[in-house]
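User: I've been trying to design a sequence by hand for this structure and keep getting stuck. Would you show me what you'd pick, starting by listing the structure so we're on the same page?

Assistant: Good idea, let's start from the same input. This is the structure you sent:
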């Protein structure tokens, strides 16, 4: 009994010592050790917030967020006449995905009155980010009333006053824009408080890249060289417009590569609403000869219908697999677009054909996607490496291997035989 008492006393003394050590660093499980498959699985949560970092000055940055009112639960107290929703947002800043040390963290609570109709609820708060920093942020959002959560990860770069996060794109009503997809109908302004800029330089690239090659296609990687179509100046009090299909790179200084980039991929992006747009991703399910035959159809709707009816066998089954296939393609556009549409990228190709991975592990410059359960014979792992890209931080390429050939053709044949392929779960 005496021995047990000594052990208990020692435990409390040791715990007290830990609390009084001469540092105040906190530690968290390394992000790279956590499964983050929920990031690309929209069904994993009912909350789907969007975030944007904006560097206000050399020491303070703003974290903007947007959440649809339809995803929150509103209620009212007996003493109140209005319905409110409450969310908590906690952030932790790390030096990298591989670091478990939290260098700053805080929790902010926001209360929103229920709008008359569905709308995006937008707010912001300050975080301390020193000039020259490159950080990784984990952001946890909680719907307090419903007790539902969503975790996300965003990179923060404050190395240059000319980089993307020094620009805040807003609409005419000063509402921030949370993605860089635009249409010819859009008109935006750029806020920038770190540089007193009188004019900006807009470089336009009329680009249209081919879809990704199959994962077993071993071809030497060639860096993408973009040919400038045109360049012009615009004063900082004028709105930016995007009349043509392509990429718009906006800079405060053309002597450096940094800037903010917007992409016009059509009025309906990220969705597939025309027969021509629906035909394009079918390249992944057809040989070159087959796909060229469908492209020669004058009526592209007839080409799409012919493929899916032949695969499914009947209209009802065709509608079912079409819904899954193109939903995956839409999410590929939302998650993986870089300087080309997401469905054309390596990650987009794998996501469309194989579905959402069961597990994902991220590092500062890579993603590892795992399908199935190891050591299941059906399990397969894809590794993507991030590339340096002046126009997008979302550019990843697949490390291709010939061993993927069997799994690829098995997945393609499943789709072609009218069945949905998925080994993620």
């Amino acid at each position: 009994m005496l021995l047990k008492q000594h052990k208990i006393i020692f435990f409390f003394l040791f715990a007290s010592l830990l609390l009084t050590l001469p540092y105040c660093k906190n530690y968290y499980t390394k992000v790279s050790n956590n499964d983050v498959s929920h990031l690309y699985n929209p069904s994993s949560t009912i909350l789907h917030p969007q975030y944007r970092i904006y560097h206000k000055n050399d020491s303070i940055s703003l974290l903007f967020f947007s959440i649809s009112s339809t995803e929150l639960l509103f209620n009212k107290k007996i003493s109140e006449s209005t319905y409110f929703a409450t969310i908590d947002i906690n952030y932790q800043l790390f030096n990298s995905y591989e670091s478990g040390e939290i260098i700053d963290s805080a929790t902010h609570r926001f209360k929103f009155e229920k709008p008359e109709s569905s709308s995006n609820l937008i707010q912001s708060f300050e975080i301390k980010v020193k000039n020259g920093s490159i950080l990784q942020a984990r952001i946890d959002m909680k719907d307090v009333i419903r007790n539902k959560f969503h975790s996300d990860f965003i990179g923060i770069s404050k190395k240059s006053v000319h980089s993307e996060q020094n620009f805040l794109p807003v609409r005419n009503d000063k509402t921030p824009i949370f993605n860089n997809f635009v249409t010819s109908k859009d008109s935006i302004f750029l806020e920038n408080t770190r540089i007193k800029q009188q004019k900006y330089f807009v470089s336009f690239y009329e680009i249209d890249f081919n879809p990704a090659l199959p994962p077993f296609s071993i071809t030497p990687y060639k860096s993408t060289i973009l040919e400038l179509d045109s360049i012009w100046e615009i004063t900082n009090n004028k709105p930016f417009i995007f009349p043509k299909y392509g990429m718009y790179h906006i800079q405060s200084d053309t002597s450096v590569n940094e800037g903010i980039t917007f992409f016009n991929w059509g009025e309906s992006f990220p969705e597939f609403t025309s027969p021509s747009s629906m035909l394009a991703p079918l390249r992944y399910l057809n040989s070159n000869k087959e796909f060229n035959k469908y492209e020669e159809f004058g009526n592209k709707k007839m080409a799409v219908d012919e493929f899916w009816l032949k695969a499914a066998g009947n209209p009802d089954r065709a509608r079912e697999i079409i819904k899954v296939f193109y939903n995956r393609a839409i999410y590929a556009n939302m998650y993986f677009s870089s300087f080309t549409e997401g469905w054309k990228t390596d990650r987009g190709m794998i996501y469309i054909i194989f579905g959402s991975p069961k597990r994902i592990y991220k590092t500062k410059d890579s993603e590892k996607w795992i399908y199935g359960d190891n050591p299941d014979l059906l399990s397969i792992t894809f590794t993507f490496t991030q590339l340096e890209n002046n126009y997008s931080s979302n550019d990843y390429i697949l490390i291709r291997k010939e061993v993927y050939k069997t799994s690829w053709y098995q997945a393609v044949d499943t789709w072609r035989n009218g069945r949905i392929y998925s080994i993620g779960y």
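That's my pick for every position. To get oriented when you compare it with your attempt: The longest helix spans residues 315-336. Residues 275-416 form one domain.
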